[in-house]
Amino acid sequence: MWQWLESTGVAAAVGQSTLLTGGLSAVHLLGFTIVTGGGLISNLTLLRVMFPDRPAGEIVAPASRGMAIGLLVSVTTGLLLLAPRASAATANSIFQIKMLLLAAAAAFHWTVHRRVCLRTSVGPVARRLTGGTGLVLWAGLALAGCAFILLE
To answer: How far apart are CA 125 and CA 102, in angstroms?
Structure first.
């Protein structure tokens, strides 16, 4: 499958154009910034570091919508950037960790995190634990992304 992807016209266009690769990388980073920024706001809200006097759902709902858009942008551009080097990238252990953290952070945010934010009966310890876990997942993803860029 990866060899097929690398042989497509899209992969050739991206692989042969530093301008296109640079533009896609910039948009990829913008999408990721929106995702992690929303994650930061959402988790700091649960930790009561930001907006302690407002209901968490009031802050997290719009942040999550922004995160979904950022994730769509980041995944789309990431797939385009992956196309010319799919075999090598997917065999890279740092890339694998990055993808695992992305899946874990997104799944955690749109399941556990969302439920905790929507329920008023959740206690402060559970809120803090959820906020801390979310921060660790999104920060780990950011670090893995940086490591992949630097060590690939």
So the answer is: 25
Domain containing 103: what range?
A: 2-151
Domain count, the chain: 1
The answer to whether 89 and 95 are in contact (CB under 8 A) is yes
Confidence band (pLDDT; 50, 70, 90) for 1? confident
pTM: 0.89
Among the listed residues 78, 150, 134, 61, the one whose alpha carbon sits nearest the alpha carbon of residue 101: 134
Residue type, 76: T
The one-character DSSP state at 54 is S
CA of 67: how far to CAs of 38, 44, 53, in Å?
A: 6, 15, 23
Structure tokens at 58: 């009031």
Q: What is the pLDDT of residue 101?
A: 97
Structure token pair of residue 136: 């660790």
At residue 9, what is the residue type? G
CA angle 64, 46, 125 (to 5 degrees): 140
User: What is the rounded average pLDDT for all residues in the chain?
Assistant: 94
- Phi–psi pair at 52, nearest 5 degrees: -65, -20
pLDDT digits (tens, 9 = 90+) for 74-131: 999 999 999 999 999 999 999 999 999 999 999 999 999 999 988 888 899 999 999 9
